[in-house]
Amino acid sequence: MGEPMITALGHAGLRIDGADVRVLADPWLSPGGAFLGSWFPFPDNSHVLTPELLDVDLVVVSHEHLDHLDLDLLAGLPQSVPVVVPRYPSTIIQRRLHAIGRTRIVVLDAWQRYPLGEHDWLTVIPEQCPMSHDSAVLLKIGERSVLHTNDARISLSQARRAMTEIGGPLDLMGVQMSGASWHPIRYEYDEVECERISTIKRIGKFKAVTRLVRQVEPRLVMPYAGPPCFLDDDLFELNSGLRPGGIFPDQSESLAWLAERIPSQAGACLLPGDQIRLDDLSVVRDPHWSGFTLDAGPEERRRYLKEYAARRRRAIDAAWAANPEPQSGLAQRFKAHLESLGTLSEYFLARIGMTLRFDVSGPFGGVWDAHIGPDRVVVELDGGEGHADYRLSMDGRWLDGVVSGRTRWEELLLSLRFIARREPDRYNDYLVGLLKHADRAALRAVEEFEAARDPEETTEFTVGGRQIRVSRYCPHAGEDLAETGVVVNGVLRCLGHNFEFDVNSGSCLNARCDPIAVKPVETYEEEAV
User: How far apart are CA 507 and CA 502, in angstroms?
Assistant: First the structure.
């Protein structure tokens, strides 16, 4: 192999070729899709799945989500190929890899280098807050560098350290600009409210990435990681989120946003099979896409997706077959499962303190209320009376997969195979964290991280012509508000995860979260004297 080359595989997948190494990074290529047969790559990337593509020296996987951890593909690789993963508080990635027979698993600590040859190496950069187990991957290939951010919201300080590790500017930076949102599209909102929330979330994601790219100034930026598309008849209308301005922006829309705001920044929009020569950053287009455009109108895109769905019909049917209608005892299994979660973390239970109502349809279903926190979980199988802070409605077959161990909560939530409602409409990250991790070590790591934050450190903002001093670190995930905070209409928004805070009281406006401290600069200085 001559000059280093990057091949886009669709979604967040890349193949990296150097003089002495061939690497697959987060490949998602199996025809079965992900998350209970609900997600599929857009556009269809099946043509790149060839024996030549899979002839590699190693695979690196950033996190456990099945649109990155392609278990079917990894199970078919030779045992000599190691799989490199980041170290997280939970060992779920290692356990899933062992379950498919992978024996060569390399677990890297943050910033630990894994050699790829005499001079080449890779390392992993996990998100700072352990509530999310996501990592970027940094690769040094010859004289060139690639920062593959995957789903990780890395901080500016982490990106600066990446440049220090490389010893100069980054050559290629891949940025994820399409989220994996079940909120708001699976909530009982009217069309206007759904559109409003979608716009806030999409623009918040775009702004956060824009800030990072503007500071890093890579030689070339490449938006990727989505969007997913939905080919099951039950979910097909969710593809409306793929339209311009929707909740699932594609690579073309993302690149246009960056180009408008950072016109000096070189960027590339790649489809599966397209390549980048790292030496001169030229793009080699895959002829497979002749006549295809991401900018197609709604009717043409719908026609493409219908044809794609027909090609994936067998995989969708297999997902349903693997999750049959539940047998008797579903309610009792559900009760035992939910109440067992209440033994994992007193810290999380104290920060949840709500009633979660499950409206389960199909055989052996019912309405079940889970009272979660403040000190235990109690499930009532004759629920439905009184107030419920949160309601989830779903077919019992999907819930049975979770309580029987076939499926993880995170996979069910990402599958979008449910409908939700919140009263009051406030996000509770601790509830989502308890469900998605369901792991004592992972929950303890969040508690320790949040306890270690310095509440005294501050940063300043200008609001309506006055200076205010606020807590420097977002109380949700520790994001540095000096980097990720913006003030709009009297609201401080953390672009890391879109948490909003009142600039007068400091209270969180849209989620269950501790307040930030807020003081006018003048008052603070007088008190200091």
Answer: 6
